[in-house]
Amino acid sequence: MDCKVRAAKWTRACALMSCCGLLVICAALLTAGGCAPADNGPMVDDVSPRPAEDATVGDAAGDSGDSDAPASSDGPAQVGGDATGDKPPKTEPLPDPTPHLLGEADLADGWIALFDGVSLYGWSEQKGDANWRVEDGVIVVDEGDEGFLTTNTSFSDYRLKVDFRAAEGTNSGIFLHTPKVPTDPESDCYELNIAPADNPFPTGSLVKRQKVEGDHTSADWQTFEVTVLGNTVIVLLDGQEVMDYTDENPLGRGYIALQHREGKVEFRNIKLKPLELTPMFNGEDLTGWSEHGDSEFTINDDGELHVAGGKGWLESDTALGDFVLQLECKTNAEGLNSGVFFRCIPGEEMNGYESQIHNGFKDRDRSNPVDAGTGAIFRRTTARRVMGDDNVWVYKTIIADGPHIAVWVNGFQVTDWTDERQVDANPRRGLRLEPGTVQIQGHDPTTDVLFRNLRQREQPRRSEP
Question: What SS3 state is found at 197?
Fold first, then answer.
């Protein structure tokens, strides 16, 4: 090949390589400017950073001293959207299999469901091995050892409603103010009997305490409504009062247990209303509370507490140890974060257990909460379902019972947790049993949350026989 031909070929090759180089550079510039070429499959591996799947933020202020807690940063959780603040279209959640246990009137009146209609969450079998199960929204037992299905939470003064159906010859009962395993209904519990008319204590009686006259057995569903208040036990059976009992040595507090002894028995629609709660706000000002931090705490014209901005906290003068606390809260925008802290070390910044307020959930799935979910004990346990929504009032009940903490949201139990850490006066380090203040959180500058109808009752100690 002569020099002229070789030179011509080299010139064409150089021009081609130069063109390809320019194309590569142009493509890169277009991509950087947001004008990516059509996606015909990646030319190279995509190694660009992607946002984390869970773009959530924890309550660093509430638990910054925990050595065993996951890391988190300040600021509100983000639910969807991008860096510009634009939000994607609102997506409806997946169909929710959770039954709507209580109506608005019951929720406003303070009722909570002890049975969710689909599981035995919040209950434990005690003594023996029986075939406790859930069938078609009903708790059923008909075989196995004599024993009990017992709540994991103990209760003091309350009104209880239970539907029951007993097969012919069944001997069962509902035990009130009982230890986990009762031994003598004459002294350590109130055994509300379910039994035939020829039993020494037929249906509606309190075994070894007071007998009901008449035959109240039925093959159909029946309803007990029981009020346990102080030293009195009042029983209504299908709306008719059949028992008014006074105990000279009231037990004060205990678990609720369903009994399997003989025959088939079924239970459904088990709900409870705590009684004798005291308001924590007067609806006019912040008497009984002290303000801390940068949040703004005000009482509006409707008597509601408005928490804006943050971070900050509102601390009660009242200290609570074992207690029932009920409240209603409303987040006034999507993805807001707040919380109610309890058993706090007085005067310290949110150093207590936090009952989380965050109604976000991921992948349209209410069993997949953002930031642990409303009703969780933040950094300790996650709410099993997100039962509330932003921009509407949410009902919450918290019961602190020694190391055990239970939380209901909109009447549905979302938390059933026992703190198994070593006892420590600092709840960030261990189990705090000492009474402490209640603190309401202003999480960050975006906080805009309302609270109303906060009411509490310190639970009395159980009187052992």
Answer: coil
